[in-house]
Amino acid sequence: MSRSMRLHFVNHACVLIECGDTRLLCDPWLSGSVFHNGWRLLVPDSPTCIDLEPSHLWISHEHPDHFSPRDLLSIPQSHRERLPAYYQRTSDRKVVRFLADNGFPVSEMGDEVLPLGSGVSARCGSVGSDSWLLVESAGASILNMNDCLTLDPQVLEQLRNKIGTVDVLLTQFSYANWVGNPADGDLHRRAAAMWLDQIRGQIAAFTPRYVVPFASFVWFCHDENDYMNRHMNRVRDVVQVIRDCGAEPVAMFPGDVWAIGDANDTEDACGRWDGAYESVALRDREHASPVAFGKLQATFEAYAARLRWKNDWRAVEDFAVRGNLPATRIFLWDYDSCVSLDILSGLREAGLATEGWDVAMHSESLLNVLQYEWGRGTLTVNGRFHVDYRNVGRFWRQTQIAYANNVGLRFPDTLSPEALLAPPRSLAARIAAMRTA
Q: Which of 138, 300, 334, 362 could lock 2 by a disulfide, CB 3.0 to 4.6 Å apart?
């Protein structure tokens, strides 16, 4: 096996793959909080992008723990012009446009083999909105799966047929989104177990000699989502799973460098991660600031105007007349009262009742949902909300059209009525379904 490829573990999902003159930097989130002050890096100290001296840049998907505009824009303009960037092909092309508009020579990357130089080649493929990267050089291969969801056996079979076996697998190892209300510890544990099952499936499919657990080195950093830290898998948990599956775990701490085929002190890395996990209890949490109802209403009006512009509004009205878009009741913690949200009739105050709501959150979170088309997605990742499992579907439907618009879909031509009526397919929704089963 070639020993020429070296893996630099930078932080979380950021790695640098080095072979000769090729230094491929993947998913650099290196600073600050993401997902509306919902996550921070478990180890907060990282080098900058320019410190890492990359020759190429690859971004897996749009989530800010992989695509961090703040860190990318820290690269001086003169360096950006000499840094080829690669991103998967998408219908909305937002990330590609961002990279191009900010001076990166960017290419959309598909399943074809792309030479990077120094005998290094890469290919990329999509799983939902995420993407994987296969890097090969001199007979050795590294498969970066980052957040690609492979719990569906058919998805895993298709990937196995496409990729085959690999030498090194890099994979996420814990949940990275809301997986239940604070009292639902059993759901959290089941979600964590599902991620370990995904790793077992990936090892069985790709038969890697080495597995590097990564892309889960974060903590939920807000006082509204702190409960999400309790049942997350830790790196020691996954190291044992990897061994039980017959592969060799390679646990790495930020700053570690490992050449394929070399020995790795996994126990030392686990020990350092243990210290990072234990330090979370002592760290300051983020806090929300109340938003005036008038600002929420004004932001809702802009939200509704975007929906009318981007979709066939007559079709939306017809869909709603048939009873398919009931208003959703949102309990605002800082107001100690509810609001009613209906994309056709508006955002209204709805009384003081603390029962009979569909979702509960802070007014700051509702503002974020209304300000950005990706706001609902951010909310489901950062876990800064609670749900009534019986009625959360009303909130999902009221916000689904905007969320679909974010990835280039439009109602009803590319976001069908049937898709809007279907329960959401996210992990959070599947776990909510478990709760009501």
A: 138
